[in-house]
């Protein structure tokens, strides 16, 4: 018996990841479309990482920390 995607939560922790997080989130699109949940924790990158996350992860729970 396989797990249902709606029972899956993906958690990503980022720090200075503006160049990497967009492609990562794009690669998860099929899984997210299948019902998986997404939580992204942004650890005070100080670069464009938060903007990339908000643009690429619409509907995700985003936690923005004020320090790493």
What would you note in describing this structure?
- With 68 residues, the chain is of the alpha/beta class.
- The protein contains 3 helices and 3 strands, in the order βααβαβ.
- The protein has helices at residues 18-27, 29-33, 49-56; strands at residues 9-14, 37-43, 61-65.
- Strand 2 (37-43), helix 3 and strand 3 (61-65) form a beta-alpha-beta unit.
- Helix 1 packs parallel to helix 3.
- The mean pLDDT is 92.
User: Uncertain spans, ≥5 residues at pLDDT below 50?
Assistant: none
- Which term fits the overall shape? globular
Strand order of the largest sheet: 1-2-3
Q: Helical element count? A: 3
Amino- and carboxy-terminal Cα gap: 39 Å
β-sheet strand percentage? 25-35%
Q: What integer value in Å does the Rg equal?
A: 12 Å
Name the helix and strand elements from N-terminus to C-terminus, one letter apiece. Answer: EHHEHE
Structural category = alpha/beta
Mean pLDDT: 92
The main pleated sheet reads as:
3 strands, parallel
In total, how many beta strands?
A: 3
Report helical residue fraction.
25-40%
């Amino acid at each position: 018996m396989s797990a249902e995607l709606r029972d899956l939560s993906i958690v990503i922790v980022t720090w200075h990841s503006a160049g990497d997080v967009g492609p990562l989130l794009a690669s998860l699109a099929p899984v997210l479309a299948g019902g998986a949940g997404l939580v992204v924790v942004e650890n005070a990158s100080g670069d464009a990482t938060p903007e990339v996350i908000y643009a690429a992860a619409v509907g995700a729970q985003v936690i923005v920390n004020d320090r790493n």
